[in-house]
Amino acid sequence: MASSSHHQPNSIVKQPDKALLHNPHFFKVVLDDALKEQKLEIPRKFVREYGLQALLKDQVCLKVRDGKEWNVGLTKSNNGTRVWFHYGWEKLVEFYSVKSGYFLVFKYENQSSSLYVVIFDRTATEIEYPVKKISLDKSKERVKMETYFDDDLDLDFKDGDLSFGVKKPTNSRWKPPSTGSQQARAMAKANRFQSMTLNPSFICKVWPSHIHRTKSLSIPKSFADMHVEDSTTKIILKASDGRMWSGGCGFYWTPYKMQRMTYFKYGWKSFIRDNYLTVGDFCVFEMTGKNCTTISFKVEIFTAS
To answer: Helix 2-20 and helix 44-54: axis angle, to 10°?
Structure first.
């Protein structure tokens, strides 16, 4: 028994090194205090088991799913048992519009001071990441983490031709930019509405890329994996006033783990234009029907301005 107790401390010391081979994860729910103090505490158990390797330096690199990297300073308690993401953390929060009730999953990357980050909103759905251009194998791709937009898509028809029952506006009716508080109210209304939907649904926030660059809307991976078949080629959107838009369903398999990303193509730009959507507006997509080739959504719009 004595021999066994002498060996036990050694096994405990070695456990973190073995666990590091499996890329340990942790998640944090963002609370009001964290937003107010502009820092986020790392779980104490993670600090205790992996802190010597993962948090040895005064800063850590947070790699978000959209490819963007954030160097964030670490604040530590006097005894080193408590560690917070601090200096630079507020920039990440602001960039991704992280709110109270969001939760973030962190994965530690072996032998580095980096943590891989995935961000989920209050609906437990991964957020729509802002689009940014990154370099992959010396070729540039426009990347959005719920879908990858292919700049080389061969379109057989112009965007908008599939829109029916809608006249293109002759005068611009774009609204002035919305404020953060207006966007927060719109998101709260969208969340309340989604909580009352009877069918599977997801929420989309309108980003600048939706207005100015992309012709596609990514469908959250968690939703698409459950409800969108590989054979799906057509998506139909129906507004609350009965207007309808039709477009194609596209797929892209990511280089990383070959995950399937799904997006609504062709008709999305028409939907944005015809409904005068602006940055900060929210849309709730409720699935109303599907077959092997077509999926239909009822769309409720919550404007921020």
So the answer is: 70
pLDDT, tens digit, for every residue of 172-186? Answer: 455 566 677 788 888
Within this chain, do residues 161 and 34 fall inside the same structural domain, yes or no? no
pLDDT at res. 40:
93
The torsion angles phi and psi of 100, rounded to 5 degrees, stand at: -60, 135
Confidence check: pLDDT of 256 > 60: no
Q: Are residues 106 and 226 in the same domain?
A: no
- Domains in the chain: how many in total? 2
Co-location of 191 and 271 in the same domain: yes
Looking at the structure, tell me whether residues 191 and 280 fall in a common domain.
Answer: yes
Surface-to-core class of residue 5, CB atoms within 10 Å of its CB (0-12 exposed, 13-18 middle, 19+ buried): exposed
Residue 132 inside a domain? The answer is no
Distance CA 234, CA 262 (A): 12
Same domain, 177 and 290: yes
**Looking at residue 239, which CATH number applies to its domain?**
2.40.330.10
Domain hosting 19: range is 2-120
Read off the pTM. 0.45
Whether residue 63 contacts residue 116, with contact meaning beta carbons closer than 8 Å, is answered with yes
Q: Which of 80-94, 110-124, 185-199 has the lowest mean pLDDT?
A: 110-124
* Average pLDDT value for residue range 228-238: 88
Residues 112 and 185 in one domain: no
Tell me the pLDDT tens digit for each residue of 197-230: 888 999 988 888 777 766 778 888 888 888 888 8
**Per-position b or e across 104-120, b if 16+ CB within 10 A of its CB:** bbbebeeeebbbbbbbb
